[in-house]
Design brief:
The protein is mainly β. The chain is 4% helix and 44% strand. The protein folds into 2 domains: 10-25 and 330-414, Macroglobulin (MG2) domain (Immunoglobulin-like, Sandwich), CATH 2.60.40.1930; 29-313, Methylamine Dehydrogenase, Chain H, CATH 2.130.10. It is globular. The chain starts with a helix and ends with a strand.
């Protein structure tokens, strides 16, 4: 009896000690858990800081109502890849995908209803200006438009004959679509007419523009292979900037006229606070392809990509945080995991003041290693690693980081 009481008391003390260390500011970009499957995700849309939807391969639809702390799978009724999604409020959204797939919800995804697209060609992007008025674009220059929430989709015509991969509307009338072969087309009458615009790119080969984001009728950004294009006059003139020939940029989102984020291959993320005059590369913590990004505010954004990658920032992607007010990371730090206790997943943050060889492991209380979370050379910055304990017994575990002579351990508690 005494031994059991002592063990229980010790367990409770450990829980209190662990909980005492859970107040960790989430800075920079950190990974979120998409759930048991890891499908490639192509598009994401948020209606507020907490409520968002991501779509991807095999008809996958994931929904969060807590800023991505948890993502719940919803039934789309299709196995076709879903490529784009647009929500106008917490309940009302439309997803589009290959072979003319369209799904519509008016109850936050509790049910998704199939809508008809003729011809049944691939759709890659969708933008709704309000609950009823939306446009989707896709294969061979396909443009379809609705003014009744998708009950009827009407095909529109333009000079575009190649694939259109992105579309952005700022109101029911004003929108821009982009695609293959330097294609930029613009409408000011809801798509009744689409006018071709000149990108002004100086590259020898024709660019494939993948993403477009407008914050008002005049100011917008287009991205493609190593190139940013910016307009302040509705696309009459475009200004070009380049990141380098090997960086494929796939999606762009602006919170306002000044603040935007661009994502692409190799885990690349770029950030601007001056309307695109300058772009700063940020640390994403992944090397996977990032396909989509959505900015809710100047500080809050979510990005999605290959193999279920979901990234979140609450600091505009910046690692100069409240824990480092001067913006200088001067020491190695292994921080407390969050949430804690957890079931089944938790995030472990750590800080590197310089590029380092990092080993991050998890051990049980017998000293046996149960997981190798990180091993390799990483750049300086704030990093976060997801630990999934679904295959382990509940209890206390120790996670340890070693980096260039630095070593530190902390405890975490898995509840079952």
């Amino acid at each position: 009896m005494g031994i059991r009481f002592f063990a229980l008391s010790l367990y409770c003390i450990v829980v209190v000690m662990i909980l005492a260390g859970t107040a960790v500011a989430q800075v920079g970009w950190f990974q979120q858990d998409p759930g048991p499957t890891k499908p490639t995700l192509h598009g994401v849309s948020f209606s507020g800081v907490s409520t968002g939807t991501a779509v991807g391969d095999d008809g996958v639809i994931l929904r969060t109502t807590d800023g991505g702390s948890t993502w719940v799978a919803q039934s789309s009724g299709t196995t076709k890849p879903l490529m784009g999604v647009s929500f106008t409020d917490a309940n009302t959204g439309t997803a589009v995908g290959l072979e003319g797939t369209i799904r519509r919800t008016t109850n936050g995804g509790a049910t998704w209803v199939a809508q008809s697209c003729l011809p049944a060609m691939d759709l890659f992007s969708v933008s709704f200006a309000d609950a009823n008025t939306g446009t989707a674009v896709g294969q061979l220059g396909l443009i379809i438009h609705t003014t009744d929430g998708g009950a009827h989709w009407v095909r529109q015509t333009s000079e575009a004959q190649n694939w259109l991969t992105g579309v952005s509307f700022t109101d029911a009338n004003t929108g821009t679509a982009v695609g293959y072969n330097d294609r930029i087309i613009h409408t000011t009458n809801g798509g009744a007419t689409w006018i071709t615009q000149q990108s002004g790119t100086t590259s020898v080969a024709l660019a494939t523009f993948e993403g477009v984001s407008f914050t008002d009728a005049d100011r917008g950004t287009v991205v493609g292979p190593g190139v940013f294009l910016r307009t302040t006059d509705g696309g009459s003139h475009w200004t070009e900037q380049r990141t380098g020939p090997n960086v494929a940029l796939r999606s762009v989102s602006f919170a306002d006229a000044s603040t935007g984020i661009v994502v692409g291959d190799g885990g690349k993320i770029f950030h601007t606070t001056d309307g695109g005059s300058t772009w700063a590369e940020q640390t994403s913590g992944t090397t996977e392809m990032i396909n989509g990004v959505f900015m809710v505010s100047r500080t809050t954004a979510t990005a999605v990509g290959r193999f279920g990658v979901i990234l979140r920032t609450n600091t505009g992607g910046e690692i100069a945080s409240v824990e480092h007010p001067g913006g200088m990371l001067t020491t190695y730090q292994l921080m407390q995991n969050y949430p804690n206790p957890f079931n089944p997943s938790t995030t472990i943050p750590y800080v590197l003041p310089r590029s380092s060889q990092v080993v991050l492991e998890v051990f049980n209380m017998l000293g046996e290693r149960v997981s190798m979370l990180q091993k390799g050379n990483l750049v300086a910055g704030v990093h976060e690693v997801l630990f999934n304990g679904s295959g382990l017994a509940g209890g206390v575990y120790v996670y340890r980081m070693r980096a260039d002579g630095y070593a530190e351990s902390r405890k975490l508690l898995l509840l079952k």
